[in-house]
Amino acid sequence: MAQNGIGNPISQTVTVVVKGSPIIHKHSSYINTAIGENVEMVCLYDSNPEPRKIQWIRNDEIVQSVPAQTIITNDHHNHHNRTRLTIKNVQQKDLQAYYCKIENELGEAVSKTILGLTPGGAHLIHSNSSDGLLHTWWKIHSIQQITEMLVLYRGENTKYIPVTAEISSHDQNPDGYTWTIRKSIRLPEGEWFVTARARNTEGWS
Q: Which end of the chain is more exposed for a tag (fewer CB within 10 A), N or C?
């Protein structure tokens, strides 16, 4: 709004349009799968100006849509642009790194997703403490049976100490793809760093 004290003030709305290289907002760095399964990789991004190339790359080659094998879908989801690569009937040759590449006239953005048989990373979904015990709950993505899990903890400037978490069939969630595993550790008061690893029939995460 501008005003010089004479007459009515003048106001005007100005619209600012920001343009730049594409921005990738979300992708999975690793996805657990199994031979014979169908798997979907997702890349959420924004691009202004509009992208001139949306590509999935494997082995330095552009992945093409092939009916009943690989399907590429480009659409919108939750206010973002989205590209999805679906691989049907996963085989050993499909277990490798995939790159989502978005390019517009001002630049490009690339994200990497690895497809494998070992478990996905263990994510801490809840924790609390009582009576000197730290209770932790971990969520793990694995189609294969989880056979072992280690919770590792350390204090400041010390090495991680592993403790084994017991696994039972009750830890597998109804979806058949994720596991929720609880482990309690007795720790004195202080600051502790905690992480976890899991092993399925194919190896360690």
A: N
138-99-201 Cα angle (round to 5): 40
The CA distance from 41 to 13, in Å, is: 41
Which pLDDT band holds residue 114 (cuts at 50, 70, 90)?
very high
Read off the pTM: 0.85
The CATH classification of domain 23-116, taken from the options 3.40.50.620, 2.60.40.1930, 3.30.70.1560, 2.60.40.10: 2.60.40.10
**Residues whose CB falls within 8 Å of the CB of residue 182, separated by 6 or more in sequence, listed in order:** 135, 136, 137, 138, 165
Looking at the domain 123-204, which fold is it? Immunoglobulin-like (2.60.40)
Cα separation, 153 vs 188, in Å, equals 12
Query: Phi first, then psi: what are they for 169, rounded to 5°?
Result: -65, -20
C-alpha–C-alpha distance, residues 53 and 32, integer Å: 28
In whole angstroms, what separates CA 26 from the centre of its chain? 7
In tens, the pLDDT along 171-193 reads 889 988 999 999 999 998 889 99
Q: Give the residue-averaged pLDDT of 108-125.
A: 97
- What digits encode the pLDDT tens for the residues 41-51? 999 999 999 99
